[in-house]
């Protein structure tokens, strides 16, 4: 089951979606592991603040790619096939405002999948 949430970016409500398909979509598009990238990104952001950000370019690119995949998954018809084109729609895009919400959305998705697995085990247990 997918979980969807709108996040306001630069005054625009942008739908984002988390589901079991996201890691595959991310891997196919960027040839990277979203779990490793998410963990590294959380660590990098945790070490910085918006006022004194010293994030490296790779961390920013990983963030943009994760946000793009989750937005494309939520609205495939209106999100361009290229992350650069998608980012052009915004003047500002703060990692410190958007990333915590994406992490929360991803966490809710993982929690929902774990709950489903528990329910399946209850149904199949004898």
Descriptive overview:
- The structure is a single chain.
- By secondary structure, this protein is mainly alpha-helical.
- The chain has five helices and two strands, in the order ββααααα.
- Strands 1-2 form a two-stranded antiparallel ribbon.
- Strand 1 (3-9) and strand 2 form a beta hairpin.
- The radius of gyration is 16 Å and the shape is globular.
- The two termini are 25 Å apart.
- The relative contact order is 0.19.
General form: globular
Number of helices: 5
Level of helix content? 55-70%
Describe the strand arrangement of the main beta sheet, using strand numbers.
1-2
What fraction of residues sit in β-strands? 5-15%
**Poorly predicted tracts of residues:** none
Could you report the average pLDDT, rounded to the nearest whole number?
85
What structural category characterises the helix and strand content? Answer: mainly alpha
The radius of gyration over CA amounts to 16 Å
Q: Spell out the helices and strands N to C.
A: EEHHHHH
State the major sheet: 2 strands, antiparallel
Number of strands: 2
Q: How far is it from the N-terminal to the C-terminal residue, by CA? A: 25 Å
Short description:
This protein is mostly helical. The chain is 60% helix and 11% strand. The longest helix is centred in the C-terminal third of the chain and has 30 residues, at 95-124.
């Amino acid at each position: 089951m997918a979980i969807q949430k709108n996040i306001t970016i630069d005054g625009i409500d942008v739908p984002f979606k988390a589901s079991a398909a996201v890691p595959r979509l991310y891997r196919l598009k960027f040839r990277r592991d979203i779990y490793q990238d998410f963990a590294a990104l959380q660590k990098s952001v945790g070490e910085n603040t918006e006022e004194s950000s010293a994030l490296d370019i790779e961390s920013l690119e990983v963030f943009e790619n994760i946000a793009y995949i989750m937005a494309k998954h939520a609205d495939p018809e209106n999100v361009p096939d290229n992350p650069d084109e998608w980012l052009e729609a915004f003047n500002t895009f703060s990692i410190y405002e958007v990333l915590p919400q994406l992490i929360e959305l991803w966490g809710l998705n993982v929690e929902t999948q774990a709950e489903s697995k528990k329910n399946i085990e209850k149904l199949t247990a004898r």
